Known about the structure:
The complex is a heterodimer of chains A (281) and B (117). With 281 residues, chain A is an alpha/beta fold.
Amino acid sequence: xxxxxxxxxxxxxxxxxxxxxxxxxxxxxxxxxxxxxxxxxxxxxxxxxxxxxxxxxxxxxxxxxxxxxxxxxxxxxxxxxxxxxxxxxxxxxxxxxxxxxxxxxxxxxxxxxxxxxxxxxxxxxxxxxxxxxxxxxxxxxxxxxxxxxxxxxxxxxxxxxxxxxxxxxxxxxxxxxxxxxxxxxxxxxxxxxxxxxxxxxxxxxxxxxxxxxxxxxxxxxxxxxxxxxxxxxxxxxxxxxxxxxxxxxxxxxxxxxxxxxxxxxxxxxxxxxxxxxxxxx
Amino acid sequence: xxxxxxxxxxxxxxxxxxxxxxxxxxxxxxxxxxxxxxxxxxxxxxxxxxxxxxxxxxxxxxxxxxxxxxxxxxxxxxxxxxxxxxxxxxxxxxxxxxxxxxxxxxxxxxxxxxxxx
Lengths: 281, 117
């Protein structure tokens, strides 16, 4: 089996869900970036698209032309796991598991998902689940098996409210909640942050959002042109280590695996006159 | 910009407004999310009971489970200001013994069991 690691190595992956309730806050971008970041740190990582019917992770990861079989094919037993997994061309630790374009949302059966996840767990360190928006079947299935949840939030009222709702669902409807296990370990990832606008009092600050949601902060991703550039070219933004967003995601990954990193992009950076005149944003 | 700020002193900035609005709406939503399941049924029963005596609308009875220190509180608010009183028609109420008189004491006079100094 091509998936197994070195002889004697035992993988038992941790399942991480990227979730938000609200759409368009950067779940897929973040799932791609966090998965790429984990792979860069030497962790065997697979990123799964749970957004059945609206497949997009393949585009963001730049492997849209290599999709043959998908998640639903594997659940239904029409394909084997190693036929559907796409190995990333830039990093050997990274695999992409695309979803199906079927309109039948119920195709994502919970027992089937569990079986696939159990098989993946033996071959990976991390399984990153990219949840669809909303709180319907797909989103609930994506978060159900999670050990950790990264709640992607924009500093904006509707996103914060929906994140709070999702936190309630994680605490009551997840497998860990239903089986009285240790609760899902939750993290806040604040994306599209603009320090300038926060300083002008036009945007909720990191502190505001932390205070309202009261969950630990994993990272702050600055609003950055590099995010669109990355998705244009099908490169997870964490592979662009020059960009502010890329560095912010790598910091978040480092914190996730237990390292201490100071929060960047939440304080104005000191810049020399030369850099502010000629440096790139 | 600075000069403008000086000329037109502080307007409450929109981030502060956003935070305040979020805090209020989330306090409500969390309370109803964490509420025990019996709460809705209890609210309906209470409404039925109260409306046998006074005319009230659904929204005039509010019920909440909260926390005060270590104590869980069941908080019931019934607004009957100006509500019409109905004739008593409940059999349980009709057959109930008359209420026991409650002893009243005037302010500043000691209760009967207090020995005068």
